[in-house]
């Protein structure tokens, strides 16, 4: 798409197209890096916090909780007489601690975050991500490590709702770039952390090296993206009339046959036509978003119910991988599935997300029955199901936000993109609450 509004008609068409292509790829790659960096700290911090706590030789209950949450189940608990190879505490316990800060931010921030300019929001994300790396790398207590994880959660939650709402000022395809980047964070973060520690670096040194990630986020935002004219980088949009006057000359006249292409050029200016949304208007928009939020929440509920409630119980003693290795591969294949499906928006769009919700619930029921009756013959079958699970979850995420961007009116779109981000976090939190009693039930058998 072309971002060259305002260029003289006498300029060669080739020049205009060239600038448009350059702008398109810069913004697409910029949002991919923002997605990667936004989720990177959250992914890496979990494993890093576990390693730091082990170095501190802290064996209290909080440490055991962290160990369970970091996707690294330990061997069978000799004191546990359960039929299952259970951890003392479900991985869902710390999942709640990890997701609640993000959920609270996503519930509250859309109603007031528009008063904070995007530039300050990004700096806050960079600062909290940097703090998370520093806190855990220099931690001497369990509480300090947990605080570092909380900072990572705050950064990820604020970043997600801010960058999703930021996409309304750009070509709609940047939603695909953002989604692909967030999917890549799980794969790249886990592999990079494992590679550096496997190479002999201590977890503390590895974390300090990864301080480059928040810096990349800042560079991607401030130097790589090409913002539309009059973008409110450092001040909130209070002078709606002025902004509207400036942009009314640049917006193309309506073309019914090319409405989508026109809308893709830039959504900037339209939100300011009638000022900020009132609280009542926001509630009306939220009601209209339920058709997007509910299916997304269901997908993520089923997804994390599997990941944090069932996978640690699906252990195959006769398989050539240990319990910890099986669980690690479950998570790795899940992340790979998420990455590919979150990158699929460039070649495939799927509006009926509710179908993905149903299919994900089928996965959850199937694996619940498999845990109870233990009828699956090999871990390889679970590997395939988990990869498929990741494909469904990633596809639901990117298609939800793509069609919110497409179907929502210009004035409401910025709020809608940030408000709808609560869907996945709500589903994850609900899955944590459900998975804890399920884990305790199976481990009591």
Account of the 3D structure:
The chain has 445 residues and is an all-alpha fold. Residues 1-15, 57-80 and 239-274 have low confidence and may be disordered. Helix 1 (13-56) runs antiparallel to helix 2 and helix 12 runs parallel beside helix 14. The chain has helices at residues 13-56, 61-69, 91-108, 118-137, 142-166, 174-198, 203-209, 212-224, 240-248, 259-265, 279-310, 323-342, 353-373, 379-407, 410-419, 422-443. The protein has a single domain, classed as Growth Hormone, Chain: A, CATH 1.20.1250. It is a multi-pass membrane protein. It holds the Pfam family CLN3. This is Battenin.
Helices and strands in order, then pairings?
Blueprint: H1 13-56, H2 61-69, H3 91-108, H4 118-137, H5 142-166, H6 174-198, H7 203-209, H8 212-224, H9 240-248, H10 259-265, H11 279-310, H12 323-342, H13 353-373, H14 379-407, H15 410-419, H16 422-443
Helix pairs in contact: 1-2, 1-4, 1-5, 1-6, 1-8, 2-3, 3-5, 3-16, 4-5, 4-7, 4-8, 5-15, 6-12, 6-14, 11-13, 11-14, 11-15, 11-16, 12-14, 13-14
What form results from the Cα inertia axes? globular
CATH architectural arrangement? Up-down Bundle
Runs in which pLDDT lies below 50 for 5 or more consecutive residues are 1-15, 57-80, 239-274
Helical content stands at 55-70%
Q: Would you kindly provide a brief summary of this structure?
A:
The protein has a single domain, classed as Growth Hormone, Chain: A, CATH 1.20.1250. Helix content is 70%, strand content 0%. It has 16 helices and no strands.
